[in-house]
Design a protein that fits this description.
Radius of gyration: 23 Å
Number of helices: 4
Largest sheet: 3 strands, parallel
Shape: elongated
Structural class: alpha/beta
Number of strands: 3
Strand content: 5-15%
Strand order of the largest sheet: 1-2-3
């Protein structure tokens, strides 16, 4: 129960595009460690029947391993769905300046994020009329 609360607090139940698997495993490990420390503190205060505190450490380690494997499986399934076009978000980039080009470059280089660039618009008539490779210019904004 505690590990669920700590995972919720770490934001592990919201999809965050671009978060690496190692970032998730670190957050899971942090949550499991916090939960194990809390259970150890409660066991020290309440003094239940004699049991090894190593059991708590082993349970936390097992939880980290199982949740990390589950998350890796979810990543593979999500990647396969996005490859088939499920869960893809269509994006229109506003602006073809340096920031807009950087955003375009990242979205094109990282298909695992699940974005499909439909095109871009810009307030400069010259930039808003010329395609950028495979990204079509859709005209002028504003």
């Amino acid at each position: 129960m505690l590990i669920l609360l700590f995972n919720q607090n770490a934001g592990l139940y919201r999809e965050q595009r671009g978060r690496s698997w190692w970032d998730e495993v670190f957050s899971i490990s942090n949550s499991a460690t916090n939960a194990a420390v809390a259970v150890m503190a409660l066991s020290f205060l309440l003094r239940p029947l004699v049991f090894s505190r190593l059991l708590i450490v082993q349970a936390a380690l097992l939880a980290v391993i199982l949740i990390a494997i589950w998350r890796a499986g979810l990543r593979v399934a999500r990647s396969e769905m996005r490859r088939r076009g499920i869960g893809i978000e269509r994006v229109l980039v506003v602006g073809a300046g340096s920031v807009g080009l950087s955003v375009l470059q990242i979205m094109l280089a990282r298909p695992d994020l699940g974005f499909k660039v439909v095109g871009f618009v810009d307030d400069d008539p010259d930039r808003g009329a010329n395609d950028l490779g495979r990204v079509p210019a859709l005209g002028q904004c504003g």
